[in-house]
């Protein structure tokens, strides 16, 4: 069973639909016991960093997510879900993130000819040997929608990068914590393969 954390953050149904297409059993929930009993957990999200943290606190999910990590259950953050795993974001000054991973979320710098948000397909430079990208060719394209990007403190945790005005840490892996800035559920066959790799983690 894969639990998709519900904190009123959007894109839950599209993530669920992609997983069910792969034959995975899923539940969208904010119930502590159902999340902690799940074999895998996904923290999705679209929207603003500060609003999302407020909702996680409101639904008493902050400690639940940290318990998921502590009990070594595989956790996948998607888009805003990746950003929330970190300490802070330029988008919401003074708001503390989950601080599960070290790093910060920074505004994508302006660059001639590039629009912000970074919206559309872009290629990934994938680090060899990563679990989430097993069987996926380097420079595969995935779908992004974001105005802020991850600058991870520990580059050893970066599983894939992309370039848009600057080098963007597009995906991370640390022990049982996985995350991607792009939307695998909107990234065609490559995205489905990423979700399948996550679902099959031991």
Q: How many independent structural domains?
A: 1
**Major beta sheet, strand line-up:** 2-1-3-4-13-12-11-8
Number of strands: 13
- Sum up the overall morphology in one term: globular
What does the average pLDDT come to?
A: 96
Summed up, the helix count is 6
Q: Evaluate the radius of gyration.
A: 15 Å
Q: Give the amount of beta strand, in percent.
A: 25-35%
Calculate the terminal CA-CA distance, rounded to whole Å: 13 Å
Largest sheet properties: 8 strands, mixed
Classify the helix fraction into a percent range: 25-40%
Structural class: alpha/beta
Query: Uncertain segments of ≥5 residues (pLDDT<50)?
Result: none
What is the CATH topology assignment? Rossmann fold
Summarize the structure.
The chain has about 200 residues and is of the alpha/beta class. The protein contains six helices and 13 strands.
Describe the structure.
With 202 residues, the protein is of the alpha/beta class. The protein has a single domain (2-199), classed as Rossmann fold, CATH 3.40.50. 26% of the residues lie in helices and 31% in strands. The protein has an eight-stranded mixed beta sheet. Strands 5-6-10 form a three-stranded mixed beta sheet. Strand 12 (166-174) and strand 13 form a beta hairpin. The mean pLDDT is 96.
Helix-strand blueprint:
Elements: E1 2-5, H1 12-21, E2 26-29, H2 32-37, E3 40-43, H3 49-58, H4 62-70, E4 75-78, H5 80-84, E5 88-89, E6 103-107, E7 118-123, E8 125-126, E9 141-146, E10 148-152, E11 158-164, E12 166-174, E13 177-180, H6 188-199
Parallel strand pairs: 1-2, 1-3, 3-4, 4-13, 5-6
Antiparallel strand pairs: 6-10, 7-9, 8-11, 11-12, 12-13
